């Protein structure tokens, strides 16, 4: 199937707005309606007739039309009838819509819908839902548009209103078309055609649907199918005597001729339609046809006539204020001036078209304008602007192509007959259902019994539904609560980082004992706040079902001893007695270290907090039947047995005078439940005890992941940076400017620091500057840290650059995800300044070791030198290029960069960072290493070897060889 440019869609969308504005008055019809109004006795007939008169006058005499609406309101106020009010507000909404006061139209249409519901008038309920969908479509409110149009489909099906059913699908098709979802639009238009065709219904709505289908096939380049639907549309428009739609169908057929390059026939059709539009005074139609004639002349290279048509269309359309036609005119003028190499004028018109497209969310047209503007800026040598525009174009075009599944669209035509049959079955089913209800109503006795049963059933169903709704509401509230805790916890971690980072700097710089004590107090409380934030975050994960147990093999007794030791030290400082009896275990078990640590630490912290001076804390643990048994008790408690059931409630406080328990114990209970364990409490002789049982035999379920122990990250000792060496380049990517400033302050002295506010910008900088190391936040707009790291590591330009991820997410799953994204290190916020500095230094130092290895290697070995598979392939490519060009004495660095597929600067930075050599040095070194290998074989003389490896100056070869190996070639052969 032939494809067309995005511009083709104009020939489609310009026909989708319902053109009630095109019709002139029908005097015979007006006389008939006036007579009907005079004879009408009931108010409902009067308001319906007044609405019809309003429709006849709205185009040519708006004040007269408004007077009919005023009469409707007079009748409504007198009768106080909801049905009549719904009619009056509906007409008023349409009036405001016509004079382009869309907000007022929306308000009145909503009132009409409300009164229609109160009156139970199904016809008006359906009509107002359809109109509301249309208005919201104009306002570009996606969800509301779909809600009202889907509601119209549902209601019209319920009340067996086939015309409204078809109209709703027609309107929804226009909605999908506006959002470039051609497959969904075509599907809806085919439903409209199926329903109306089955009814043998012929009206302007039927013609609209056929024109729409024709337009989609034009966009897809399937002109044969477009021709079939276009001819059907024209024939039906002539049959129903709708001249405006005859014009549209004729213009659509002209479009088919245009894209088939039959410009002569296209021009004839366009001119006929233009004459008709001028005759009826339709400015929008006139402007539209002038654009199409301009396009034809442009294709025929009659540029003066093309300019004349297009400028005339622009002048008319600026007055008519039609967005789509105005956009089309500007875009075609941009195309014309591009063709005549008047780039500045072309830019001006394309920019105007782009502005209109963006203001009205017309993505397809925005894509085309961006593409052309990128080309224009390239032609005028504004390469930066061209590059930015092309990136915007590529990004937007990708998202557009995802929504346009052409293969799916093509399949729809083959399913057309099936779609019609299914639709007919649905409608017949609705009719049969109504027939059954009428027959049942005749059987009075059975109806009465059935009624009683129905009432009982409905009562039960209503009660059950309420129960389900209540459960869903509780579930929804819990989810909202969990999201709130998760979000607020993440928000707290950033300011905590901003507090702790400068605090650590001050602690290392200040020597005053009093100031150190105050700083220590701040540090202690910020750590406590961080602990509370972590607890909130854990609870939110448990509530949302996202927390999993990560089981690793380890020695449980050694682990528990390491947890208890600091508590024992603190207890002695506070004058408390602390005893621990932890049964030694020779065998290892699988357990979640993070969860066990939280449970034990919180229980010990709680015991320490509420144990008076001189009282005792006891910690016992042993393993029984593959269960870890823990008992933690403290004496001197003032709790009573009746308080025990409430201990695990969040923020439980016994009285206003006593400190509450916060969320620590609640978190413990949730974690133990997650572990399928048990916790019990008891009080005997003022001794509060917690007995915990946790299973150690792993069971692989959806909440449990069993993994091997990961090696700990080794952090090397800091080494002095050689002052003579060029400063390493460090890129910092974080959307929080304060965090960036803190990090910049840490590294500015020893690094050249670059900054980026999100992953997308950081990726561009990394590809341009090739930094020595990158520090990136995980949660960023545009592109998050995980995606950014993946992009860095998969790109040959940047794959070797170490990436350190920083995150407020503390879970092991997040850590695991970070490592899976091939990050080189993963640290949590608030980070320790010294650990972060050492981590960066360690990563850069590791790369230096690889450089040293390269300088010692006689032959380039990618496997030994590469950091990952991408670098290995890059080094293999370098080797292949050098093998091919070894004897080429004129092989330059520019040619080298071109062969590798990089710019000269990018190749230089990559080689400098990866191997600590420039491109020139790399070429020379590889030639010298090959020469050394040949010398060792001993079957050639020095001058022959020098020429073989690409040196045409023997003295320069000798000097270079001595610089690299420390001895001249003759001495190297002797050794």
Give descriptors for this structure:
Serine Threonine Protein Phosphatase 5, Tetratricopeptide repeat, Heat Shock Protein 90, 5-stranded mixed β-sheet, 40 helices, flat
Structure write-up:
With 975 residues, the chain is an alpha/beta fold. Residues 1-25, 403-431, 655-660, 709-725 and 861-866 have low confidence and may be disordered. Helix 4 packs antiparallel against helix 5, helix 8 (142-158) packs antiparallel against helix 9 and helix 14 (263-280) packs antiparallel against helix 15. The radius of gyration is 39 Å and the shape is flat. The two termini are 72 Å apart. It contains 40 helices and 13 strands. Strand 11 (773-777), helix 30 (785-794) and strand 12 (803-807) form a beta-alpha-beta unit. The protein has a 5-stranded mixed beta sheet with strand order 2-4-5-7-6, with helices on one face. Among the domains are: 322-424, Serine Threonine Protein Phosphatase 5, Tetratricopeptide repeat; 484-548; 550-702, Histidine kinase-like ATPase, C-terminal domain (Heat Shock Protein 90), CATH 3.30.565.10; 729-836, 3-Layer(aba) Sandwich (Rossmann fold); 857-974, Arc Repressor Mutant, subunit A.
**How confident overall, as mean pLDDT?**
75
Low-confidence stretches: 1-25, 403-431, 655-660, 709-725, 861-866
Envelope shape: flat
Our measurement of the CA-to-CA distance between the termini, rounded to an integer number of angstroms, reads 72 Å
Strand neighbour order, sheet with most strands: 2-4-5-7-6
User: With helices defined by DSSP (H or I, 4 residues minimum), what is the helix count?
Assistant: 40
* Major sheet attributes: 5 strands, mixed
Beta-strand portion reads 5-15%
CATH class of the domain at 550-702: Alpha Beta
Name given to the CATH architecture of the domain at 550-702: 2-Layer Sandwich
Q: CATH superfamily membership of the domain at 550-702, which one?
A: Histidine kinase-like ATPase, C-terminal domain
Secondary-structure-based class equals: alpha/beta
Helix content: 55-70%
CATH topology of the domain at 550-702: Heat Shock Protein 90
* Rg, alpha carbons: 39 Å
Topology, number of strands: 13
């Amino acid at each position: 199937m032939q494809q067309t440019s995005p511009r083709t869609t104009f020939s489609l969308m310009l026909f989708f707005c319902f053109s009630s504005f095109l019709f002139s008055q029908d005097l015979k019809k007006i006389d008939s309606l006036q007579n009907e109004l005079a004879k009408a006795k009931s108010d409902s007939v009067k308001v319906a007739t007044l609405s019809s008169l309003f429709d006849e006058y709205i185009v040519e005499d708006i004040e007269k039309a408004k007077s009919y609406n005023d009469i409707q309101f007079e009748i409504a106020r007198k009768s106080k009838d909801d049905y009549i009010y719904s009619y009056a507000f509906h007409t008023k909404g349409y009036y405001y819509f016509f004079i382009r006061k869309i907000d007022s139209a929306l308000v009145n249409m909503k009132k009409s819908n409300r009164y229609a519901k109160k009156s139970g008038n199904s016809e008006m309920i359906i009509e107002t839902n359809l109109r509301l969908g249309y208005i919201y479509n104009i306002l570009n409110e996606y969800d509301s548009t779909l809600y009202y149009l889907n509601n119209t489909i549902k209601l019209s099906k319920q009340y067996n209103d086939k015309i409204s059913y078809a109209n709703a699908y027609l309107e929804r098709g226009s909605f999908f078309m506006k959002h470039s979802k051609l497959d969904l639009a075509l599907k809806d238009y085919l439903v409209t055609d199926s329903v109306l065709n089955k009814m043998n219904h012929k009206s302007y709505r039927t013609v609209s649907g056929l024109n729409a289908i024709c337009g989609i096939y034009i966009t897809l380049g399937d002109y044969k199918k477009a021709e079939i639907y276009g001819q059907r549309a024209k024939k039906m428009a002539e049959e129903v005597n709708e001249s405006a739609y005859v014009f549209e169908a004729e213009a659509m057929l002209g479009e088919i001729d245009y894209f088939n390059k039959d410009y002569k026939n296209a021009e004839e059709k366009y001119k006929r339609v233009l004459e008709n539009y001028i005759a009826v005074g339709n400015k929008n139609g006139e402007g539209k046809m002038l654009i199409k004639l301009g396009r034809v002349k442009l294709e025929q290279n009659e540029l003066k006539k093309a300019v004349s048509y297009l400028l005339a269309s622009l002048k008319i359309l600026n007055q008519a204020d039609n967005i789509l036609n105005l956009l089309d005119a500007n875009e075609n003028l941009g195309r014309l001036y591009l063709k005549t190499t008047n780039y500045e004028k072309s830019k001006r018109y394309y920019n105007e078209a782009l502005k209109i497209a963006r203001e009205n969310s017309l993505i397809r047209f925005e894509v085309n304008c961006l593409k052309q503007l990128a080309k224009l800026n390239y032609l005028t040598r504004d390469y930066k602007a061209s590059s930015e525009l092309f990136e915007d174009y590529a990004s937007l075009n990708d998202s557009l192509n995802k929504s346009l599944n052409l293969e799916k669209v093509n399949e729809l035509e083959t399913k057309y007959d099936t779609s019609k049959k299914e639709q007919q079955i649905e409608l017949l089913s609705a009719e049969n259902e109504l027939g059954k209800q009428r027959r049942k109503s005749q059987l009075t006795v059975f109806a009465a019994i059935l009624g009683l049963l129905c009432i009982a059933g409905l009562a039960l169903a209503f009660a059950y539904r309420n129960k389900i709704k209540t459960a869903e509401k509780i579930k929804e509230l819990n989810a909202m609560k969990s999201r709130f805790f998760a979000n607020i916890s993440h928000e707290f971690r950033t300011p905590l980082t901003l507090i702790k980072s400068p605090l650590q700097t001050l602690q290392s710089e200040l020597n005053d004992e009093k100031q150190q004590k105050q700083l220590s107090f701040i540090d202690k409380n910020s750590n406590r706040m961080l602990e509370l934030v972590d607890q909130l975050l854990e609870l939110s994960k448990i509530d949302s079902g996202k927390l999993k147990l990560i089981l690793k093999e380890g020695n449980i007794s050694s682990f528990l001893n390491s947890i208890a030791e600091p508590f024992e030290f603190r207890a002695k400082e506070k004058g408390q007695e602390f005893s621990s009896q932890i049964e030694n275990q020779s065998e290892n078990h699988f357990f979640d270290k993070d969860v066990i640590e939280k449970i034990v630490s919180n229980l010990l912290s709680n015991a320490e907090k509420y144990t008076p001076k001189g009282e005792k804390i006891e910690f016992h643990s042993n393993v029984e039947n593959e269960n870890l048994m823990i008992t933690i008790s403290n004496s001197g408690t003032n709790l009573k047995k009746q308080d025990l059931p409430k201990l695990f409630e969040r923020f439980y406080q016994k009285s206003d005078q006593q400190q509450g328990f916060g969320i620590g114990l609640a978190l413990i209970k949730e974690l133990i439940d997650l572990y399928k364990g048990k916790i019990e409490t008891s009080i005997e002789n003022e001794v509060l005890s917690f007995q915990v049982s946790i299973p150690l035999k792993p069971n692989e379920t959806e909440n449990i992941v069993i993994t091997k122990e990961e090696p700990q990250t080794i952090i090397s000792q800091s080494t002095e940076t050689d002052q003579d060496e060029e400063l390493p380049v460090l890129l910092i990517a974080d959307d929080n400017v304060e965090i960036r400033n803190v990090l910049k302050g840490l590294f500015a002295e020893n690094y050249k620091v670059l900054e980026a506010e999100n992953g997308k910008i950081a990726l561009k900088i990394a590809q341009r500057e090739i930094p020595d190391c990158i520090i990136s936040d995980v949660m960023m707009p545009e592109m998050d840290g995980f995606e950014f790291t993946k992009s860095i590591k998969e790109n040959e330009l940047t794959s070797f650059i170490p990436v350190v991820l920083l995150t407020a997410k503390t879970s092991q799953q997040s850590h695991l995800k970070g490592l899976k994204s091939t990050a080189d290190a993963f640290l949590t916020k608030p980070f320790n300044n010294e650990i972060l500095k050492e981590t960066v230094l360690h990563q850069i130092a590791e790369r230096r070791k690889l450089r040293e290895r390269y300088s010692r290697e006689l032959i380039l070995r990618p496997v030994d030198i590469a950091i990952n598979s991408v670098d290995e392939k890059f080094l293999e490519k370098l080797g292949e290029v050098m093998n091919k060009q070894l004897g080429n004495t004129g092989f330059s660095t520019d040619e080298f960069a071109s062969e590798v597929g990089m710019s000269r600067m990018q190749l230089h930075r990559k080689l400098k960072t990866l191997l600590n050599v420039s491109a020139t040095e790399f070429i020379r070194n590889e030639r010298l290493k090959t020469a050394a290998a040949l010398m060792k074989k001993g079957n050639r003389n020095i001058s022959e070897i020098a020429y073989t490896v690409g040196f045409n100056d023997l003295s320069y070869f000798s000097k270079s060889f001595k610089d690299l190996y420390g001895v001249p070639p003759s001495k190297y052969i002797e050794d």
